[in-house]
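Hello K.,

You asked for the raw outputs rather than the summary table, so here they are, unedited. I folded two proteins back to back in the same session to keep the settings identical. This is the first:
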Amino acid sequence: TELVRSRACEGLFVWQRGTGSACICGLRRGRGMFRFRALPLILAFALVVACFVAVDCKKKKKSKSKAATADAGIGTMRCGVCIAAIDEIFAELKKTENSTSTLDLRWGLTAEVNEGRAKRIGKVIPYKRSELRSIEIMEKLCEKMKEYVKFSKVPGEFQLRLHKDIKDVWGEDMRNDKDKSGFERTCEELIESQEEAITTAIRDDLNETEMEDALCFGENDAPCGTARVACHPGSVSEFQGLNPCTLCAHGMYQPEPGQQACLACQEGFNTTQ
């Protein structure tokens, strides 16, 4: 095997082996080493490699996106914690709904004088619309998750209910220390990622349904998925028959999905559970 010159290759070197030969395009001997001549070929090869890398990255990103979507939905812990957290937010808001307190955010004086007094810089705002109110609620919100238990009787949903309510209605003790730590940790992650959104929702005085839509549903890996879904038969919701849903009480039933109210059993009939 040897390198020889060939007119067919326009003076370039040819790699010849046996009866076969091929031009090594773009290579020429110069002072003991080869140097590139065909820059366009090199750029074309680099472009092909870049395309393969881009396609591979896109596939990985799409795969991650599908995994994130699978983690979001009404049947997940994140959704249950999000809904329960909003219940707690409104319980705390109710405690201060009649507050007449104000926050004096004035911090300096201007050169303007009115009735012999210099005008102060800043403003006084109601406590109910202050960021401080939101911060105080969020600080103790996740600690409350320890009082909740998993309630899996509503079809298709991962719900959290207060342990005392479950025990009174169902007569069951569903407490699980592992669940409690998981609820608290998930709540902390929720607060960390949505602190600004929670503050805005409280300041804008959203109702409970509006706050659920803003914090638990929507895009960007929302805890409960992109949109609410219809309640399963046997459960109802006052909000257009969409989750979160409530089981029909004993002696009541609902055979259709997506309903807002339960029906009473006919005389002589009753529900089995």
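The second followed immediately with the same parameters:
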Amino acid sequence: SSGAGGRLWFNTSLTVRANYVLGSAELAFNNSKSTIALQTFLTKSFKDASKIFVIPNILLIESTKYTFIMKLTNFLQQSSIVSATVSVVSSTRVVPQVRIISTVSVAYRYQPLNFFVSAFLPSCRSNATNTKFVYVWSLYSNITHLADTISTSKDPRYFNLAPYSLDSNALYKLQVTASVYTKTNTALITSSDTISFQIARSQPTVYAIISGGGSRTLSRSSSFSLDASSSYDVDYPENSNSLQFLWTCITQSPLYGSPCNGFNISSSPVLQIPAFAISTGIYLMSVSVQNEFGDVTTASCKITITA
């Protein structure tokens, strides 16, 4: 926790709310002797929020859901509250602890994606024959299950996707379910974890490229061309055929900013300039490249036309 301003907390408190779980129903359990005993322990023992606080399991009741509420107050009398919920399951059915491990919250379409699941049974009690888990991964876009998007990893603990597998500017949810057999081998104990991540739009989204460099010196008596067909969409390079082009020209010399006489605006990836079409001078010829999402970038080439 942070916000103490380098001093001790003015006040710390930890309270608990308890619900007894009976099937799909939950019954308030706050006034039970066990909950009162737990709250008494918390009040007397919780003093330092910077250290790990251990609650003896003797104070916890099976089939009970506990919500722990921590309140911290600094020397300026500013307070903050955070809560965490813990379910204590029956000792006859301890569920696996499952967590998806990833540093990815925002990625780009051209990047590979790698996720790993950590699953284990609590060491204090175990009702499984072994710790060999069965993993099932599920990927969702909004509420749509992407059943055809399958991990490239042969290790079931990993969910890996190659670049360009998902769409950009989209939010995804990844879920993994870990299952292990009970001692009787008649039932699976399962638990799951879910994370969300975003495939963001690249910046810039389009690269406008004029082949051959940023400047040329050419004779007026020679035709020439400027080729921008190598331009591409960063997120969707496979859709290069959908790019739109627009060529423009500005005179730099002898009269800066004047029209390029003899230049015809073009929407082709390759600009063709016939011989003698343009007078001697210095020109800045530019191409704007736009993808299907309306994103535009520009590249320019300085053209010097000699006699």
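DSSP finds one helix and 20 strands in the chain.

Happy to rerun anything if the numbers look odd on your end.

Regards,
P.
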